[in-house]
Amino acid sequence: MIDMTAAVVGHLALAGALLGVLLLRRTGARALVVGLFFGYAAYVMLLTYPGFTHDYYHLQLIPIVALGLAQSATYEDLYSIEILPPFWEAVSHANPLFYIVNAVRYGFLGQSDVSVTLSFAVTAAIAALFVAWSQWLFVTGRKLKP
User: Fold this and answer.
1) pTM for the complete prediction?
2) What is the DSSP letter of 55?
3) What is the domain partition of the chain in residue ranges?
4) Predicted local confidence at residue 131, as pLDDT
């Protein structure tokens, strides 16, 4: 089973995610990620056949590992924008993913480089843009019809 899991996320990513769980200071966030890891372990132990036969039954581990890795990457002020020179700080504010990352940082650490309201507004705008684009693609049938 470990080999199947490694094929999906990799040993290094899994180790980094477990390290991220250890670095969590907020007990609520730690309980969430630990609960997700235990839920995944229970899933694999209860449904042994899928766990040992196909890699794609381990795909639900990817977001769990991502949450753990996000904590590892955002530990304390490791990647705060305040350490950048002013020019690159301004360039970072033009990147929409910057706001999504700061929303995640706020969720785990309780601190953010920008307003949480602004982060959620930019994230919602990006989501609305992609939903509208997807709707347009389905309505027009672009690249869907022969």
Assistant:
1) 0.49
2) G
3) 1-73, 81-146
4) 95
